[in-house]
Amino acid sequence: MKNTIRQITQGIMVIACCAIFSFNNHATAQTIKESTMNKRVLFVVTSNDKLGNTGEKTGFWTEEFAAPYYALADKGVEIDIASPLGGLPPIDPRSADPSSATEDTKRFDADEVLLDKLKNTKKLSEVNQADYDAVFYPGGHGPLWDLVEDKNSIALISSFYENQKPIAFVCHAPAVLKNVKIHDEFLVSGKKLTGFTNTEEAAVGLTDVVPFLLEDELQKNGAIFSKADNWQPYAVEDGLLITGQNPSSSKLVADKLLSKLDSK
Predict the structure, then answer these.
(1) Mean pLDDT across the stretch 27-48?
(2) pLDDT digits over 167-219, tens only?
């Protein structure tokens, strides 16, 4: 009889503990969502669809857009999308190939609401950093030919940074920092960062096609560049600056950006 009572008591305690654990986990998740649900992030994508003089198409890389978009949106973050020309931005056709598919890109392909939203990106010249808590740039080769030199983009990044707001980039997107200065000094000078590496560019056969090699150019401007092996997830955070090396680093960048938003 005593053993039966003991077993019943232990069972009740186990159920109670599980309920408390479940409640705490739910409460924590709810708290995180509530802390980010009033946040607004601007995504900036390329309008360039030409891969240099090759006659091939480029644009933004789907995974680098989709993974961070859903990571933030699923936590209640409101996201606007802007591009230099506004309207529908180009997607790099290689990133839409089934061989590049991930769970996030599959979700993206079936997301009619987001696809419709993409058709109406805001013009970069018409957005204001004061309306947002952070800015994020997905990569793809497209930005190397337009966003790097775009005066609105350069001014926007400077404005976010000077107003103590996170700025995040992945893969080729850190290249858009090339001409960004803060008080006449390159923003990347003395900053730890990463991005698409020389060896990764060589691996995709575009070393002689791109206007410059991201790794070399940012180091020329004083960046402290670090990297992992080709295609391995790797992200670096230095104050307000968050950078990721390649497409597989997209979620790492999103996680770091979420942490920044959650702490603000």
Answers:
(1) 75
(2) 999 999 999 999 999 999 999 999 999 999 999 999 999 999 999 999 999 99
For 1-20, the pLDDT digits (tens) are: 444 444 544 544 444 444 44
Closest CA to 219 of 183, 252, 174: 174
Q: How far apart are CA 119 and CA 173, in angstroms?
A: 21
Residue 105 confidence (pLDDT): 97
The enclosing domain of 149 has a CATH number of 3.40.50.880
Taking the C-alpha atoms of residue 258 and residue 77, their distance in angstroms, rounded to an integer, is: 9
Distance in angstroms (rounded) separating the CA atoms of residues 77 and 231: 28
54 and 155 share one domain: yes
**DSSP classification of residue 89:** P
Q: How deeply is 149 buried, as exposed, middle or buried, from its count of CB atoms within 10 A (0-12, 13-18, 19+)?
A: middle
pLDDT of residue 37: 72
Task: Reduce the DSSP state of residue 42 to 3 states and report it.
Answer: strand
149 SS3 class = coil
Same domain, 22 and 123: no
33 falls in which pLDDT band (50, 70, 90)? low
CA distance 24 to 30: 10
The token duo for 94 is: 């290689």
Please tell me the chain's helix, strand, coil percentages from 3-state DSSP, rounded to the nearest 5. Answer: 45, 15, 35
Residues 91 and 29 in one domain: no
Enclosing H/E stretch for 236: strand 235-238
Number of structural domains the chain divides into: 2
